[in-house]
Amino acid sequence: MRRVLLLNALIFAVLAAAVALAYYGYSYTSEAPRERERALMADLAEEKLQNIETVIDDADTKLLRAVEIDPISNLADLLLPTGAAVARVIVLDDQLKIVPGGNVSTRPKEREVPGFTDYFMTRILPELQLQKQPLGERRHLFLREASKPGQPPGRWYLFSFMRRQTADKTFYVVIEDDPAHLIYGLFPQFFQGAGAGSKRLYQVVDELGQLVYGVPFDGEGERVVRRSFQLTVDGWKLLITQAEVGDDKVAQRKKLVDSILIGGAMTVILAGLAFLGFAIRRERRLNELKSEFISNVSHELKTPLSIISMFGEMLAEGRTKSPEQSTEYAEIIWRESVRLGRLIDNVLDFAKMERGMGVYEFAESDLGDVVARAIELSGRRVQTANMQLSEDIEPDLPPVQLDANAFTLAVLNLIDNAIKYAPDGKKIEVSLKREGDRVVLAVRDWGPGIDPEEHERIFERFYRAKSVRLKPIRGSGIGLALVQHITRAHHGEATVISEPGKGSTFRISLPISGKNDR
Fold first, then answer.
1. CA-CA to 73 of 20 to 30 Å: which in 81, 129, 258, 337?
2. At residue 159, does pLDDT exceed 90?
3. CA distance 457 to 500
4. Are strands 504-511 and 493-498 parallel, antiparallel or unpaired?
């Protein structure tokens, strides 16, 4: 009864949330596009302003730093690659006097401003305050020439300047930029397609609010985004607005589409609620199908699949430089396929082990042949890891009751374990000998070793030694658990002998046929 009440309360809460979501979504659809468009226009305005001013700032900074005073640089040569943006360069000494050859203009004579040098020295220079500027930093000044009452506003002046020092000499470099270059050179490049029929309209206005460039439109209102120039023409603003596109029919059609989408979402939510009620009833049965093992080894299965897919795609598309590389890719695919098959075997056997199913078919076998076969199967992986594997199998060993496939898997897991966790040792030693009434398999490596406190836990499922947890080594912690399970199923014993820094030796001890209870 309590479970039914809880289920009904959950359904009611989700239904109420769905209704609230639908109402909010319907209300939001009319405002959200406008806010998104405004945010997009704001980002666009910032980006365009930054790009425009960066062009001027970078070019001026490069020129300001290129000028030298002792001897004076050939300013005419420095001005050639700057284009039309720079109208004049003036170099002054530490007494704020123009140095000889330090006043060069790029304007044609017919466009020269009469008396500009005198105007600069008397009107502009005091405004720059050059001696108070930090060394090596570009600063700028933008102003409009004063005009007499009743006359049109005077011309604009844009200056970039920098305080420089070479050895013990301090000097100043001043650049006069041509604002007309901004209007007729840069603005058309950055505002292409901003005319009639475009989705957005742009305009640039000066400090008096007069249109300098762009399409005339009302600059007031919340639909207009305004951003100010910061590094060049102070007081000028960039205005962006959305062009009027569409009519009431378009708005009504959009509203209808939004309503359909929200209705569809409501339908999906209601269907989900119905499914939720059904799913809760099956919760206990579904939980029985879950396994902690799957979550721990899924990434192990994905890794070889990803590698196979990647190199297979490269081979299929012919992205190889030579036949040798193709062979190398094919070997990688084969190696990862073998590894994947081994992982799948581990998964299947471990899943059966978890369910308590009998998975072994025992027969009297030659343990030496089984171990030799496992060593042969591991040969390619050992070679790829640039390690050496030596074997010492005692001849004429007595037969042992075992499942050859299962025990081969156990040996492969021990060798793989040594390859993964002890690559610095560069070698692995596998021995198989008789010790009294038992046959003992030993796999030794020269890796980092295992702390004695962890010897008992190392064979637990999903447990990994502390020395390898923080290393980028793939592993799920089931290999040794499977080795232990297989060994115990054969009435044997799996142990480890290890010390930190001295490598590890994993031993499997099996009874000789006739010495066990089978």
1. 129
2. yes
3. 16
4. antiparallel
User: Are 477 and 464 a contacting pair, CB within 8 Å?
Assistant: yes
Q: Could you say which DSSP state residue 182 is in?
A: I
Residue 229, both tokens = 């120039």
Instruction: Please give the mean pLDDT across all residues of the chain.
Output: 80
Terminal CA-to-CA distance of the chain, rounded, Å?
53
HSE of 16, CA atoms in CB hemisphere, 13 A = 6
Distance CA 219, CA 165 (A): 46
pLDDT tens readout for residues 95-119: 999 999 999 988 887 778 788 899 8
DSSP code, position 109: G
| Residues pairing with 159 in the sheet | 141, 176
CB neighbour list of residue 131: distance below 8 Å, 6 or more residues apart = 96, 163
Examine the pLDDT at 245 and tell me if it is beyond 50: no
CA distance 326 to 316: 10
Measuring CA to CA, how many Å separate 49 from each of 54, 214, 327, 430? 8, 14, 54, 71
Percent helix, strand, coil in the chain (nearest 5)? 50, 20, 30
pTM, two decimals, is 0.44
Of the segments 191-195, 270-274, 452-456, 494-498, which one has the largest average pLDDT value? 494-498
Question: How far apart, in whole angstroms, are the C-alpha atoms of residue 516 and residue 518?
Answer: 6
Asked if residue 508 lies in contact with residue 494, where contact means CB atoms within 8 angstroms, the answer is: yes
Confidence class for position 516, pLDDT limits 50, 70, 90: very low
User: To which residue do tokens 């790829």 refer?
Assistant: 384
pLDDT at site 32: 62
Maximum Cα–Cα distance across the chain:
123
Is residue 201 predicted with pLDDT exceeding 70?
yes
Preceding amide of 188 cis, omega within 30: no
Where is 400: in which H helix or E strand?
A: strand 400-402
- Lookup: tokens for 99: 């140095």
Give the CA count within 13 Å in the CB-facing half-sphere of 79.
20
Contact 492, 511 (CB under 8 A): yes
Closest CA to 40 of 198, 199, 188, 195: 199
Token pair, residue 181, equals 């270059």
Structure confidence at residue 476 as a pLDDT band (50, 70, 90): low
